[in-house]
Q: What sequence folds into this?
């Protein structure tokens, strides 16, 4: 079994290749069983373990294990840690262990950009990022692969983290600023992308401008939420998979408040990527994309890395 380290994994996940790979994966056929979810209590700390398998007719089987510990931020540690193993789907032979953190961060940011490719306005140019973690850091580059992003703003509940990330982005050539007035920043943004582990809503529906696109990629359990129910009322809402309706705290709250009904969700990624349902229909329409993540995204990213490494050999 080949070991593919973080640098090698990252090198083969450029968004101009990864976003189309995700689109192709969702348009195709694959087997994606429900994820296994386990709560870990140890020494007074609580985390979540997800085990996410997927396989396809292309001949690859992948299994990701991801550990999520929201309290890590206070320790200066990432909240997510993951491992990924790719196998031959026809024999079960292990092919490679890849860096799961790079797979997770890049595929999540790519899914965010893929959602925006269907739902954000064609002229969207201002991106507001909520969060400063591993995924949040990749969002400008990901969205720039599908929209002409010119301004990037970042907010975090720890302002010093937002200032530091904005500085990193400026060094990379972005017009980037940290913001502390979140309502004003939301009103001014074409795309609002939330990549946090929040358990209480951060974005309010009343702040969202007509024609804006709200991207919710951080929360993935019923207890986690980044947007209040009003964010969904009157918006065109799409999800990555049907699993989102049972797993996303944002959606469950909106259902309970009757701001949204399950039948009001317009499309999944598969329906969008296959052309079975439309995305945005007008420049003034407000849109929302809610993702809880899919093992299919991991498999598509891992396959891209494996094939890239093999081509170099």
A:
């Amino acid at each position: 079994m080949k070991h593919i380290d973080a640098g090698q994994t990252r090198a083969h996940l450029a968004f101009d290749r990864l976003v189309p790979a995700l689109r192709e994966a969702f348009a195709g056929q694959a087997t994606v069983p429900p994820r296994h979810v386990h709560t870990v209590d140890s020494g007074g700390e609580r985390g979540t373990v997800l085990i996410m398998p997927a396989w396809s007719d292309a001949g690859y089987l992948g299994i990701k294990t991801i550990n999520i510990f929201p309290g890590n931020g206070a320790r200066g540690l990432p909240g997510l840690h993951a491992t990924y193993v790719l196998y031959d789907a026809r024999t079960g032979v292990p092919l490679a262990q890849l860096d799961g953190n790079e797979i997770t961060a890049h595929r999540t940011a790519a899914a965010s950009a893929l959602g925006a490719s269907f739902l954000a306005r064609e002229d969207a140019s201002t991106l507001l990022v909520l969060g400063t973690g591993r995924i949040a850091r990749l969002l400008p580059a990901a969205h720039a692969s599908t929209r002409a992003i010119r301004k990037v703003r970042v907010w975090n509940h720890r302002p010093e983290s937002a200032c530091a990330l904005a500085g990193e982005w400026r060094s990379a050539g972005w017009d980037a600023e940290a913001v502390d007035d979140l309502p004003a920043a939301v009103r001014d943004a074409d795309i609002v992308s939330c990549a946090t582990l929040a358990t209480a809503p951060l974005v309010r529906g009343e702040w969202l401008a007509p024609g804006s696109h709200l991207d919710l990629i951080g929360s993935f359990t019923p207890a986690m939420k980044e947007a209040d129910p009003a964010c969904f009322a009157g918006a065109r809402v799409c999800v990555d998979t049907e699993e989102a309706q049972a797993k996303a705290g944002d959606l469950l709250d909106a259902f309970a408040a009757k701001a949204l009904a399950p039948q009001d969700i317009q499309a999944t990624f598969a329906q969008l990527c296959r052309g079975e349902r439309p995305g945005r229909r007008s420049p003034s329409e407000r849109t929302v994309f809610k993702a809880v993540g899919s093992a299919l995204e991991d498999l598509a990213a891992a396959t891209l890395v494996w094939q890239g490494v093999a081509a170099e050999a």
